[in-house]
Amino acid sequence: IPGLKICTAASPDAAYGLTKSMIRDDGPGMMFLPVKMMKEIKGSVDKDVCMPLNKCVNLHEASAESISKGKAVTVLTYLHGVKESQVALKELNGLGYDIDLIELRSLKPLDIGTIQESLKKTHKVIILDESTASGGVGATISAAISEKLYYDLDAPVQRLCMDDAPVPYAASMEKVVVKRAEDLVKAVQVLADDKF
After folding, report:
1. Which residues are CB-contacts of 11 (< 8 A; sequence separation ≥ 6)?
2. How far is CA 126 from CA 22, 64, 89, in A?
3. How confident is the model at residue 10 (pLDDT cuts 50, 70, 90)?
C-alpha cells in the first residue's frame, strides 16, 4: 500500500506524539499499542510534540567498555518487548553484558539507518518479537538486516519470537509461549560469547 505507515508505541507519550503525526499525515497509517501496558504507566504527555513516523528510538546505548570487550548486542523490539528488555538490561549489566536497546516505533518504513548505526558498534543483533516465526514482524526485519546490513554483522540475526501456534489464553501457558526478559538474557549471553 503506497504511503502506508505502521507504528508502535510502548508509552503514552509515544502513542500521543505518533498519533498526532498520523492525523496530520496525508497517507494511511496504523498504530499498535499495548493497552495493558498503557494502564500501568502514569504521567503526563507533552501536547505540543509530534513524533516522526519513520524513526526508531535508541532507549539505551551500550557502554564503550562493553562494546570494546565484545559483550554488547543490539536489541530491536517493540510494544511489550520494550518493558521486557528494560527488565533484562538490569540483569545483563550485573552479568557484565550490555545492549543497545532500540524501540521500533516505525515498522513501515523501517529505520534501517538507526539500526545500522548501532550494528556498526555491536555487530550482533537480537530481535525480541511478539509475532510468530513465520510471516511475523521479526522475519521481515531480519530479512532487511541480512540483505542491507550483512557486512555489519559478525553473527546471524537472532530472533526471539513465538512458535507458529496460537497464544494460549491462560496466563501461565502464555508465559511459556511469549518470549520474556529471561529469554533475552540467555540469548544475549549466547550471542555475545559467540556460542551460537
Report:
1. 41, 82
2. 29, 19, 13
3. very high
pLDDT range class, residue 94, cuts 50, 70, 90:
very high
Beta-carbon contacts of 174 under 8 Å, excluding residues fewer than 6 positions away, are 167, 168
Q: Which residue type is seen at 47?
A: K
Query: Residue 140 is inside which H or E element, if any?
Result: helix 137-148
39, three cell numbers: 494502564
Cell of 81: 518487548
Measured CA angle at 114 (ends 132, 12), to 5 deg: 65
pLDDT at 176 over 90: no
Instruction: Concatenate the DSSP letters of all residues of 66-129 into one string.
Output: HHHTT-EEEEEE-THHHHHHHHHHHHHHHTT-EEEEEE--EEETT-HHHHHHHHHHH--EEEEE
Who contacts 111 (Cβ-Cβ below 8 Å, separation ≥6)? 54, 55, 56, 104
